[in-house]
Structures
1.
Amino acid sequence: MEHVIGQIAKLLHDFENGFMNRRQLVHSLAFAAVAAAPAGVALAQNPAQNSSAAPSAGAPAPAHSPAFKTVELDHISFQVKDYRVTRDFYADLMGMEVTNDNGRSQVEMKFGNSTLLARNRRPPADGATPAASAAAGAPVGNRPPATALVDHIAYRIYNWDTDQVKDELMRRGLAAATLRPDTGGGIPNYSSFHVSDPDGFNLQISGWAGANDSVSKKK
């Protein structure tokens, strides 16, 4: 319960300081309330308890409680060419805290309650070339072969100012003067930019734009 109270206090702080609008606050408070529900509601119900007959083919699945309730992002794992380059990039640009660097092949970096894990790429299995392994989607260890991809990861930052963020990205050589903010298709008070990190991952940096932000003034 103390954890939930802390989450609510942070949500109110973000709202009062302009980091989210009223609708986002209401939605976030609703999620916090669900997270505070007794653990028993998080267990998947047995359909047999609700119906004596199995649903017919094509019929919508019966409503039931989810097996789990996701509350936050645990970590993101990157396989990279040189973890040190990735470490320095995210620490310097995104302000992530280096918490566990083994000095050889991997590092853990904290942001909020989450972690970015960057580690040097594993060698391809059975002497295959990296290109061949990637093309075949070869599994690593007991992990399934890759059949899909994550097309980008977005990090939200506080004290957002669209023009200042763009200027900083340009200063670092990560963006051109022609780069336009991504507003998520017109989401109110939302602004972001996409750039490439040292390994070519699509990095989206986002924030909530205030009334005086250049994105808000253009609407």
Note: The chain has seven helices and seven strands.
2.
Amino acid sequence: MSFDDRGNSRNARLTNGFTSPTPLLSPCHKAGTTPIYAFCQQWQSSLDTLPDKDAPEAILNFAAVVRDMARLQEQEFRHRQKAERYKREVEKREAALANARNRDHHQSIIPYSTAEQQGGQQQQQMPEENAIQESAEVAECRIRVDSANRKYTEEKESERKSIQDTRFMTLNSMQTGLSQVFLSMVTFSGATVESFEKLRSFAQNSKISRITDS
């Protein structure tokens, strides 16, 4: 028996309608009170009282949780990809800064040596002017490194929060959803078994056990 018993309920109602005017199995009974009709009524009553709504609802709720978790995992993956991209950008900018510093240091030595040989006022001015000119390139590279580092830090923080959200969903919502699914299925299964046992007992007491045994 499935969670959706509309087909079984419809069959039971049709059987009730068919047997109600027909005194089967026991001619002494009036129409509508034959054992087979009473059995069908009992069957219909059992189907109507089954908890067949809790399990589908729990399954649908759990499916919604799974979809939300998949969405969070997708967000986490996107943040991780962006963080890795920003990390490579930081490494690239740091390498450019190191090269700029090397050039600045190298170019500041050569003019100073030339000016030292020429002597006079040029010896004092050349290193200072060249240092100012070259330090602008280093400063620009440092700004780029700081900007890349800031983006990388922000994206890593977004990734960390996304991981926390996914973990919370996994540990709490999934656990709760699965518990509800299993509990509703156990409840439905137990009620179904109890319903069939009552029907079998009713059939045996009504001397129509061959209906349930066939």
Note: The two ends are 17 Å apart (CA to CA).
3.
Amino acid sequence: MILGSQISVDTIFTDTYNCVIQARCLLMKPAYITSGGIPMADALVSNAGDTAQHTSCDQCGRPAGKGRSYAFKKPVPEGALDQGTATKCTWCAIKHQPMLRRSLIVAFVVGTILTLLNQGDVLFSGSWNSALYWKVPLTYCVPFCVATYGALSNSRR
């Protein structure tokens, strides 16, 4: 009984070993196995490269490859389940209205707090100098840019 199971295990091991050796030999030799007139190795490489090119922007139709496409949730009508995601190119992602609205709210809240902390004494004393005319808007621009960059980084595909 033990001898019979030992032979079957040895046979399975030998068959597996031979398959691995044959696979190694195929990898070392140029691939002459063809698929539609194209060598198999070239067909695999070209098919892998084509998958990144098939992604396009759902809004404008521009091609959006890996690292240049962003996924946003589609709006859900009342009473419906999740509608999936919309893929957008960089330009359309920057103009995505819900993201811009959130970034503006963050910029308003954080910018106001920073302005009061940094320039509050000058503002309340009433002695405005010319530097405040560029410092205050810049104080609001920084949180807007940070919030927008964070949202885009989070949605990058």
Note: The radius of gyration is 30 Å.
